[in-house]
Automatic annotation (TrEMBL):
Name the record gives this protein: DUF4931 domain-containing protein
SUPFAM superfamilies documented for this protein: HIT-like
Species, as recorded: Neobacillus thermocopriae
Domain DUF4931 as annotated: residue spans: 8-130, 135-252
Gene3D superfamilies from the UniProt entry: HIT-like
Length: 252
């Protein structure tokens, strides 16, 4: 029978450091000289094996985005932003092309409601040996109101969100990297943290390689609606066109 569930090792999970609530916890990513199992270092950017591989039947890596513990993606210089995303995408696609995994997921947690445990900016690239995440992906989840489109990159607000409410999408061909892809992603993160109609402290970024396209989905995180948890029913808010207009007014 095909496996559709990730298995979480709780014995490892309880050992993971956490500093969103536990402010006394030292940040392990700041102690750069103590990091082990490094895969590649590019100045302040580091890719290394995850010291706490809580997912079974998976190869887990962590991408430390910067040496500034208090930085955040929406504040990065354009130079660092492009350097980081190209670095991450290269390793993600190389792991995918290796043939060692059924699929490879690439994602980012930011903030106390994002599902992450450490506030230091980082992403994760995880090779899954027996699960293909693309089985849960469809084109509908990337459809939306177009906010901007330039140089072959589309930026949209989902009209058929995957989980519900507000999801911001970026889309480009997988043939070459386009700077607008990351710049739209940065705008999405900045809007969520600084201009969202409800106070927002957290978001996720999910990357997808699907049908010769690279997609990213930036999702503000709040307490998840029970209708989705209990029944898998995404909700679509009635103010999407207002929000689309606000984003265009603020950034374009």
């Amino acid at each position: 029978m095909e496996n559709k569930h990730l298995h979480f090792n709780t014995a490892i999970g309880v050992k993971k450091p956490e500093n969103y609530r536990n402010k006394q916890q030292a940040c392990p990513f700041c102690a750069r000289e103590e990091l082990t199992d490094l895969i590649e270092v590019d100045g302040p950017i580091i890719l290394l094996k995850n010291k706490y591989p809580v997912l079974e039947n998976a190869y887990q890596t962590v991408l430390i985005e910067t040496d500034d513990c208090h930085a955040e993606l929406s504040t990065y210089s354009k130079e660092h932003l492009h350097r980081l995303i190209q670095f991450g995408m290269r390793h993600w696609l190389e792991m995918e092309d290796s043939g060692n995994y059924k699929s490879v997921i690439f994602f980012k947690n930011h903030g106390p409601l994002s599902g992450g445990t450490l506030s230091h900016p980082h992403m994760q690239i995880v090779g899954l040996y027996d699960i293909d995440y693309r089985d849960q992906v469809n084109h509908d989840m990337f459809e939306g109101i177009v906010l901007a489109e330039e140089d072959g990159v589309r930026f949209s607000l989902s009209t058929k969100p995957r989980v519900g409410f507000y999801e911001l999408n970026m889309e480009m061909d997988d043939t070459c990297y386009k700077e607008r892809f990351s710049e739209y992603m940065q705008i999405a993160a900045h809007y969520i943290l600084h201009h969202f109609p409800f106070k927002a402290t957290s978001y996720n970024i999910f990357f997808y390689h699907y049908h010769s396209k690279i997609y990213a989905k930036v999702v503000p995180r709040f307490i998840t609606t029970p209708l989705y948890i209990g029944y898998g029913l995404p909700q679509v808010p009635n103010n999407l066109h207002w929000m689309a207009g606000e984003i265009q007014r603020l950034y374009f």
